Amino acid sequence: MPESPEVEALARFLADEASGREIRAVDVLEFRTVKTRSAPPAGIAGRTITGATRHGKHVELLLDEGSLVVSLGRHGWMRWLTDSESAGSEHPAEAPPALATLELSGDVALQVTDAGSWVSLGLFVVDSADEVPAIAKLGPDPADPAFSRAQFDAALGGRRKQVKAILQEQESLAGVGNAYSDEILHLARQSPVTHAAALDPAATDRLFEATVTTVRDAIAARSGVPIDQLKAQKVAAMRVHGRSGEACPVCGDTILDLTFSGTSAQYCPTCQNGGVPL
């Protein structure tokens, strides 16, 4: 799942590379991606891209009139094709299919892809990004320099809900998904099944610091990485997520997998639960 560090790197890449380019044509290959039927993506042909920004896990392409918002969903991403390639060029069999293509001036194309078995990606043509319901409901973003401890405490709110679920709840904290929530909890030395209401002040302090540090350090680490390499960079950087059966890089205990409440987590029993497997 795309999360804020990689989506931020994608948005910065598009701001650098796509700004100033005219959208010559839009070809939507999967109609289910179109979420604004009264304003279809084909209608932005002729407009010029003026920038790009991120809202949680969403990318907004700023246009000289309105915006194209891409909700990346669970498996969405983008592919940048230069003049040495073409929108119809062949890609390796494992490469995700393009669901829509924007042909841009300068003989480049921007493809929107989805690697999932079901379409979770969405395209919105809007006047303002907050017209997208999921963006309008986003909580504060830990990547934002203005993100405060008060906002974090409000997100937790003493709730009888597992901390891992709150970290992934976009209405509470924007941009964090399954992978980075595992990394945050490992750094904070906190069990993924602990309820927010059970956190003592010291544990809350650790969790706040781990959330801010994990997100911001990952954004810094992804800066300048080619967008087709961001997923691999993310996977390589994980300490516990996706590392079930491997040794914890902190204590050497075996990282375990846990499935609960419709989600999964990888964690270190010693670092996060007193040496006791969950």
Automatic annotation (TrEMBL):
Q: Does the keyword Iron apply?
A: no
Q: Which organism is it from?
A: Microbacterium psychrotolerans
Q: Which domain of life is it from?
A: Bacteria
Q: Which Gene3D superfamilies match?
A: 1.10.8.50, MutM-like, N-terminal
Q: Which cofactor does it need?
A: Zn(2+)
Would you tell me the protein name for this molecule? DNA-formamidopyrimidine glycosylase family protein
Q: Which SMART domains match?
A: Fapy_DNA_glyco, H2TH
Q: Which family does it belong to?
A: Belongs to the FPG family.
User: Would the keyword Protein transport turn up in this protein's UniProt record?
Assistant: no
Q: Where is the FPG-type domain?
A: 239-273
**Residues annotated as domain Formamidopyrimidine-DNA glycosylase catalytic:** 2-119
The family database entries (InterPro entries) matched by this protein are listed as: FPG_cat (IPR012319), FPG_N (IPR035937), H2TH_FPG (IPR015886), Ribosomal_uS13-like_H2TH (IPR010979), Znf_DNA_glyclase/AP_lyase (IPR000214), Znf_FPG/IleRS (IPR010663)
Write out the catalysed reaction: Hydrolysis of DNA containing ring-opened 7-methylguanine residues, releasing 2,6-diamino-4-hydroxy-5-(N-methyl)formamidopyrimidine
| UniProtKB keywords | DNA damage, DNA repair, DNA-binding, Glycosidase, Hydrolase, Lyase, Metal-binding, Multifunctional enzyme, Zinc, Zinc-finger
Q: What are the boundaries of the signal sequence? A: none
